[in-house]
Amino acid sequence: MMQKGRKLNIRLYVTCALGKCSIITLDNLASHYICHVMRATKFDKIKLFNGRDGEWIGEIFELSNNTKIRVNELVREQIITKDLTLCFSIVKNTVLQNVIRQATEMGVTFMQPIYTKHIATSNINLDKCRKWSIEAAEQCGRLDIPYIASPINFTDLKNLKTSDNNFIICDETGKGDYPSEILKNKNNIYVIIGPEGGFSNDELNFAYSFCDGLSLGTTILRVDTAVVSALAYVNEYYCML
């Protein structure tokens, strides 16, 4: 008699190729999560994705420190996410985790940490950021993982400007325009979010040499709140989620 397992509410990001009848071997960390945190048993089914091959249902056929899963069925075709870059000033980990998670949930494809004058810390753990991003993608149902780049100086952003992209700086001084005026019919958008202490006057003056200014309202927002607010506008006028 064929064994029948449960359909578990688990999505796992893997780096290997996914295809009908392929065998996936999980690492120790993922195996521990499957076996001891989620209490999976043999023949249980979970969802797998790798950012390239869509989302698949896989069946656990061996539970161990290197759990093995047989890939059975394609349930969602891979889609191409519209290019959207978030450039954000480096913040402390308590806020940084929210920034990474929210940017992942809201469709950012490329994250660029930046050094600005008023940052509270210059330290950023990119491995930890990538881990947070993967966890967010697993939880929100996204099919790909954003790329998180090494930090650069704020002034280096101008070197990334081309005729094909559009830089939007979130101006906390109130000088920015309304979203409907600057986001409509734009392609390849780069959203720039400042530090908790705000941009310096020199930084803002420099930014307006290659950026459009976006107003997020009359109140001063936390960095992670500003990320959500700005990306919500972008999704409305650009990504059309």
From TrEMBL:
Pfam families for this protein: Methyltrans_RNA, PUA_4
Assigned keywords, A-Z: Cytoplasm, Methyltransferase, rRNA processing, S-adenosyl-L-methionine, Transferase
Major subcellular site: cytoplasm
GO biological process: rRNA base methylation
EC numbers on record: 2.1.1.193
Catalytic activity: uridine(1498) in 16S rRNA + S-adenosyl-L-methionine = N(3)-methyluridine(1498) in 16S rRNA + S-adenosyl-L-homocysteine + H(+)
Taxonomic superkingdom: Bacteria
SUPFAM superfamilies, per database record: alpha/beta knot (SSF75217), PUA domain-like (SSF88697)
Enzymatic class: transferase
Location(s), subcellular: Cytoplasm
Domain called Ribosomal RNA small subunit methyltransferase E PUA-like: residue spans: 30-66
GO cellular component: cytoplasm
Limits of the Ribosomal RNA small subunit methyltransferase E methyltransferase domain: 83-234
One MF annotation (Gene Ontology) recorded for this entry: rRNA (uridine-N3-)-methyltransferase activity
Family, similarity comment: Belongs to the RNA methyltransferase RsmE family.
Reported function: Specifically methylates the N3 position of the uracil ring of uridine 1498 (m3U1498) in 16S rRNA. Acts on the fully assembled 30S ribosomal subunit.
Protein name: Ribosomal RNA small subunit methyltransferase E
Organism: Ehrlichia muris AS145
Organism phylogeny: Bacteria, Pseudomonadati, Pseudomonadota, Alphaproteobacteria, Rickettsiales
